[in-house]
Amino acid sequence: MIRLYQPGDETGINALYEKVFSKKRSLAEWQWKFETFPESATIVVSEQDGQINGHAAFLKLTARKQGKELLLGERVDIMVDPDFQGRGIYNQIVSRMTQECEAEGLDILYGFPAETAKQVFMKVAGGKDLGNVPRFLAVNKPGALLAAKVGKLKKIQAPLDKAFSVSVPKKSTHHLRELGDRLAVADMLYGRFEKQYPLHAKRNGDYLQRRFLDHPTKDYQVYTLEQNGYAEGYCVLHEETKDNGVTFATIVDLFGPNDEAIIADQLKAIRRFTKADALNCWAVPDSPRYRALKKAGFFHINSPMPFVIKDFTGTGSYDELSDWHLSQSDVDSY
């Protein structure tokens, strides 16, 4: 039976999540994802004999483009119990999810699916593949990365890092200051700069609170980027130490003037501020951020994330990757 979520389903949904993805998810994290992070969510499940064996959902977000408001949905956690695969359940839940999007008046459904899921989304939901989002990497401490690959180099890791420290920008006019409870500053920044960007999820103070500061398990660092004592943007960082000992900082979000030179200076400030061995960041091709990343010493290393949409507006106004402003914050898993 294909149906909508009912209170209490979250236990079965999390059990299915663990079985499919081989990792646990707490009730608190489920609540953040489906009750706190988005403005609301719609969940479709497949149930047989009281067991949830399929799941598809979309998280609803307010989006803006040149002052125009749209309703977006992010497709998430589309999964089928391995013991029930091959019975058409995947197609059924995706089809029902698409029907719910139309019924609720969504303008656009988007996602970053794996290749097999992408093909189903395009076939069943009538989605469109807009291409892959580039990922950039900057290395602050190459000795740490080399030592992680070749254990013998650990003895000379510090000298290597010192020798290559010239690659880390020495100057920037911005500096980072912890946002703390200054959410009104984020509101001000969003009001100043949002019309400079193509279509994007609304990134005001409430968004920062729900998306990052309320997360039950991940520790995000939110900073204003300040210049001459005034906030000129904000950034969200998440640092993670891998099993090999290398620390990566992800620039999950960066918002301020959509100006290449200013973004490059802000990125340099972030590189100088973080103690991470390396940093990564996304940017839509040929955007001011894309060019700024190169100016700040980042390298385009790959384009791992396909971006697909289902446009219910029928206008064709959002059918190119350049029509969007995207960062890792647009993916619930970052």
Short key terms for the protein model shown above:
acyltransferase activity, transferring groups other than amino-acyl groups; single chain; Aminopeptidase; 334 residues; 32% strand; alpha+beta; 2 domains
Written description of the protein model:
α5 runs antiparallel to α6 and α7 (about 185-195) packs across α8. This protein has about 325 residues and is an alpha+beta fold. The chain is built from ten helices and 13 strands. Helix content is about 30%, strand content about 30%. The longest helix is centred in the first third of the chain and has 15 residues, at about 90-105. The two termini are about 30 Å apart. Strands 1, 2, 3, 4, 5, 6, 7, 8, 9, 10, 11, 12 and 13 form a 13-stranded mixed beta sheet that branches. The chain has two domains: about 1-125, Gcn5-related N-acetyltransferase (GNAT) (Aminopeptidase), CATH 3.40.630.30; about 135-305, Gcn5-related N-acetyltransferase (GNAT) (Aminopeptidase). The mean pLDDT is about 90. The chain has helices spanning about 10-20, 25-35, 90-105, 115-125, 140-150, 155-165, 185-195, 205-215, 260-275, 290-295, and strands at about 1-5, 40-50, 50-65, 70-80, 110, 130-140, 175-180, 200, 220-225, 230-240, 245-255, 280, 300-310. One of its GO terms (molecular function) is acyltransferase activity, transferring groups other than amino-acyl groups. Pfam families: Acetyltransf_9. This is N-acetyltransferase domain-containing protein. InterPro entries: Acyl_CoA_acyltransferase, GNAT_dom.
